[in-house]
Amino acid sequence: MYASPVSSKKEKYSYPRYDSSSEKINNSRCFSSKRFSSSDLISSEVKTNACIFCNEFHAVGDCNYVLSLSLEQRKKILSKKAACFICAKPFHLAKFCKSKIVCTLCGKRHLSILCNQDNSVLKNNTHLNENKDDNNLLTENFTLANNLCCREVYLQTLIVSVENNDVKHYVRSITDLGSQRSYVSKYVADVMKLKCVGEQMVTHGLFGGLKRRENHKKYSIELRNTENNFSCNVEVMDQNKICTSLPKLKEPKNIEELKQLGIFASDICLNENLCLYENDPKEIHILLGADTAARLFTGEIKNLSPDLIAMNTKLGWTVIGRSGITENDSSSTLMSLLVNDVNISDLWRLDTLNINDPAENQSRKELEEAAKEHFERSVKRDNEGRYIVSLPWIHDHPPLPDDRKIAERRLNSCIKALERAEKLVDYDDVFQDWQKEGIIEEVDPMQEIKQGQHFLPHHPVFKENSTTKVRSVFDGSAKERNTPSINDCLEKGPNLVELIPSLINRFRVGKYGDRGKEGNIKILLHKRVVFGISSSPFLLGATLELHLKNAPDHLTETAQQLMRSFYVDNCVFSVNTKKELARFISESQALLSTAKFELRGWEHSPTEDKIEERQEDRKVPVLGLLWNLPKDTMSLDMKSLMKEDKGPTTKRKILSTVHRIFDPIGFSCPVTLEPKCLLQECWKLGLSWDAELPLLITERFERWKMKLPKLNALEIPRCVREDFAEDSKLSIHVFCDASQSAYATCIFLRAESADNTSCQLIQARNRVAPLKKISIPRLELLSCTIGARLAKATISELGLEKIPIFYWSDSMNALYWIKRNENWATFVYNRVLEIRKLTNPEDWRHISGTLNPADLPSRGSNAEELVKSLWWEGPNWLRMPIEDWPVSETIPDFDVVNFEKRKSIVSVTNTTTEQL
């Protein structure tokens, strides 16, 4: 629900509600848009169906029954049920499977539970994501994994006493400071009949990508140490399984040492058979996270060996570390529960636009297609031409409360703030206008709230330099504790951020750029889709696409251009003549008005006959960048970076700073490499988000940040072609390079005419080298891979499939691999295979490292060096005639290239036949 003022007098105000029971919402307004600690797991959202192995309604990853089966038995069940041997879903065979699941154990294409590499141990992973609680965003990653190891590793296990209603049980537990929450197994909760005190919404996932939402119950339990001289109350969430059996200390030498020190460790001295367990006495049924453990530790530590220590807690002593005994079949368990309010995934996601693995794209496209199919089945149109759409509800989503109390609290706070700022009347006018236009309507306050109707909180945003001075922003993620928000219950649709590079590419091709924008408490009902709910950008985009597909024949060309020009409610495009510009504006307005969509606030670069337009230095925002209209240039929006950021330098501060540099083109990517490398160093050192960083890292970050204001002088031409003669010869040039720190690619458009040759950067990307050390030749091959991916996307977006394309690398070894279709080892083979599919090997050429413009983004630079380099204009030799381009022989290091050949095993059999 949202609260909205409906009177400029001293009355109370209203909060319109959102009717989610009636799925029919008119969509006639354009909306504005808001839009990885790296993870080893890939998750994609799917509908929860019955488990293929036990027929219970849970994901395969939560199935305990499957863990008791051998690999052969699992495959037999899949075969019997005609299910896929890759994703374990029914109704298709593996050869027809579109899922791009990758096993985390062997890297092959199947679920980890179907891997024959390590079938003897549990492979269970749960990925939790706790959504926003009112205003705070928290992301939880809860990981339980097992793998073979050589030496026994002991975690902080102990035996505690749990009491409930005069019933007392010993339970084996673990202390985990990597977890921010505490957990109890559902088995213990059921056996002890614990009383539920609330619920928590979380999301479960599996290695291969399965993921589902589920409510978890909360309990308050009393824990006591085994000596019965300390007790504490702990709030825990239930969990199907905390983890499987964990080892306990058994080395006689260490046990004797504990006795000599007078240390009583409950998990060592007591028989685990006294504990409550389901299948194995060594099971863990309680996890004490940092929310509890922080008040339990006494700080007393005893060293037992270089790799083993005893730590004292108020619940008893625990032992942690590695043993000195080698075990052949022992399992090591990694447990971690992390809550972050900084989303590093946004940073990595922007870095990988148009260069991420096709497997990830395919998995996401399947989900997007499902959302589109639902839209196409349910969309309708009324007599006025407006489209009526259904919200894409998640199947079996949890019950959605009305959230009226939140809306009332937010309304009261909003009114007080508006009165202090003397903006109450201005904000009230917004809702008055909406009522007049029929966007919202008043509801009888005495009318009973229908099931499914939901109240949305809201707040104003004032922008004096905008055509819309004040607008209302609705919060679809608001919720009370332990309940879902409306966004938790809706499918989000495709990730629209990925559209930005495509739109900017097309925006930079034409000569003229253009942009079109878009008392007593009363209850008001929304009659339009509200921007603020997660699915609204998708619904708007799908509605526009449907409308434009049905355009009349004489407007087909304009409709097609509009389809390639929209990002939510922003329309950006470019044309080559003033006549085209006028025609496009006129036809697009006429076309969209039939569906009650209004294009307004037009801005375009100055034409030759309006010289006075060039005298005013005016910048307008375009898809996160700034467009200087008189100069027709584009630059970064540096306002948020200019704010003083006090306090110590932490990992969170570095991430926050670099995250504010939004550059979908990549022309500033050499500058943003340094903080990304610093973040990686922090990961290597195991530093927490808010720990003060070492002096060396801090000084490097401060030196980098000191140069950032120089980026204000960084402007690139909006138009990538200076000469628009019809006889201009165009060509695409893709440069690739790598260093120990990163690998990079950049793409330039070269336009050659009789009088002039110009060259401009279209797109650039760089990626930090993996933590695991990789040889330079392999990194060079990775740069060629992302170069091929980025080129394919760019060429398709600009419709330049028929012009010549040149790929350049200064790695003779990588070029040797690409040009020869031989049986290379897996790493090289897979990347060469993809490169040869995306490009013609004959188009690859060698360039000296000193002449390669991709060298700069691969090694990085500060802002001052970047501005002086003018690297976005391309190398000077690229403006010369083709016969003057540098030529060099490609003689690789044969020791390096041949090392990557797949090893062959030759078997010779000698058969002797004797005649009788």
UniProtKB/TrEMBL annotation:
SUPFAM superfamilies (UniProt xref): DNA/RNA polymerases
Short name of any one Pfam family annotated for the protein: Peptidase_A17
Organism domain of life: Eukaryota
Region of interest (Disordered), residue spans: 1-23
Coiled coil spans: none
InterPro entries: DNA/RNA_pol_sf (IPR043502), Retrotrans_Pao (IPR008042)
Biological processes, Gene Ontology terms: DNA biosynthetic process
Protein name per the record: Uncharacterized protein
Annotated organism of origin: Araneus ventricosus (Orbweaver spider)
Lineage of origin: Eukaryota, Metazoa, Ecdysozoa, Arthropoda, Chelicerata
